[in-house]
Specification:
Elements: H1 3-22, H2 28-52, H3 57-83, H4 89-119
Helix pairs in contact: 1-2, 1-4, 2-3, 3-4
């Protein structure tokens, strides 16, 4: 998968998260979780964009680790929403699946970057997530 496609997917994830939050019931608990998931869900794409502008392989690995953390946190908040009964699993199946796919691609990219880093191959520092 190329950079442009991954940027598009992470942006679509952010929009989907925002839309799902709009469907939550009005309660104190839902409001607190909504703020958290909006922060993490929108942060995935923002941090990926920062990673694309990395100055070195090490810098990109560090920025991609942030993408990984934010994506994992987003999955966590989706699970909390479902397990607390604030939203049904069916309502979030697609966004949860996409979150996990992006997470898996991010982890794979980090592994590839680290392998390149340790082998000393710095010719092509940027490694885009594979689908």
């Amino acid at each position: 998968m190329d950079e442009k496609t991954f940027k598009t997917r992470t942006k679509k994830l952010a929009v989907a998260i925002i839309r799902e939050v709009g469907r939550l019931p009005k309660s104190r608990a839902a409001d607190v979780i909504a703020r958290q998931i909006i922060r993490s869900g929108t942060s995935v794409g923002a941090n990926y964009r920062a990673a694309c502008r990395a100055k070195s392989t090490a810098d990109m690995v560090n920025k991609m680790k942030i993408v990984e953390e934010e994506c994992d946190e987003t999955a966590y908040w989706i699970e909390i929403l479902v397990e607390s009964g604030l939203i049904s699993q069916e309502q979030v199946n697609e966004v949860y699946k996409e979150t996990n796919e992006i997470l898996a691609m991010t982890v794979a990219s980090i592994k590839t970057l680290r392998a390149r880093q340790s082998s000393g191959n710095r010719k092509s520092a940027i490694v885009y997530p594979k689908s």
